[in-house]
Amino acid sequence: MIHSMTSFSRYELKKNYYNIIWELKSVNHKYLDININLPEEIKFIEETIYKRISKYISRGKIDCSAYIKSNKSKKINLLIDKKLILQILKIIIYINKEINFSTVNILDILKWPGVILKKKYLNKINNKVLISSFEYAFNNLLNYRLSEGREIKKIIKTKTEKINFNIEKMNYILPKFLEKQKIKLKNKILEINNNIEINKLEQDISFFIQKTDINEEIDRIKIHINSLTKTLNNRKPIGRKLDFILQEIIRESNTISSKSTAIEIIQLSIELKLLTDQIREQAKNIE
């Protein structure tokens, strides 16, 4: 089952005194990189969220942010965290002793994260509400990754069919081309030297033909295509394996281009390489 690494989800839970907004963004990355940005009031669920994400996603850069908006239509009482203010003041007094500086503005202290608390909604928010709202947003993200993964799979299958068609064309062209080359070489050599031994001539021609024979490369590409098709149906993350298989197909395509002297086969190998590069671009978004 293919999952795309590119996805986005936004969910807003509306309550009486507050709204919780979750935003999750996923982009392609070599490894799993999770960034969680939560307000101070709900930092205590960060570890739970991290474990949840890492359980279901194995690769990609994940940004998870939450915002809490107070409902302005409701009366909200403000509180201050006295312990936090005392800690800040102690630090200010200590620094003032070490290096003399101007008095700190009280408003600057009030702007410190966590100093001002909103009484009404803090008493109302609970773990279940937070986690369930996150779960809803996260499931949307996962569903989008799965949906886009299905579309990527269709694209890869279509391009894989075109690669198979090119390989079949090569198989059809190659024997006829090699036979023509053999006759052509033999006639040219005989024109230059009629006294050459036939057996020796046949051996030299066969050796030259073997050097330009691409059957081995074609067979290896077929093996890689079969491996690619099986990998697409794997339920585990397949992005890295796909990239390796596609690299091998490109390598064999380059060998065909350099070995063959048939214009049609060279053109087919170039098209094959282009198709593989296109698949590789799609595969970069696969988990």
Write a concise keyword list for the protein shown above.
single chain, 287 residues, alpha+beta, Ribosomal Protein S5, domain 2, 3 domains, 4-stranded mixed sheet, two-stranded antiparallel ribbon, 6 strands, elongated, YicC-like_N, endonuclease, YicC protein, hydrolase activity
Tell me what the structure shows.
The relative contact order is 0.14. The longest helix is centred in the middle third of the chain and has 66 residues, at 127-192. It is built from 9 helices and 6 strands; from the N terminus they run E-E-E-H-E-E-H-H-E-H-H-H-H-H-H. It starts with 6 loop residues before the first strand and ends with a helix. The chain is an alpha+beta fold and 287 residues long. It folds into 3 domains: 7-74 and 123-145, 2-Layer Sandwich (Ribosomal Protein S5, domain 2); 75-122, no CATH class; 147-283, no CATH class. Helix 1 packs parallel to helix 5, helix 5 (127-192) runs antiparallel to helix 6 and helix 5 (127-192) packs antiparallel against helix 7 (215-232). The strands form 2 sheets. Strands 1-2-4-3 form a 4-stranded mixed sheet, covered by helices on one side. A two-stranded antiparallel ribbon has the order 5-6. Helix content is 63%, strand content 14%. A hairpin with a 3-residue loop joins strand 1 (7-14) and strand 2. The mean pLDDT is 83. Residues 2-153 form the Endoribonuclease YicC-like N-terminal domain. InterPro entries: YicC-like_C, YicC-like_N, YicC/YloC-like. Belongs to the YicC/YloC family. Residues 175-287 form the Endoribonuclease YicC-like C-terminal domain. This is YicC protein.
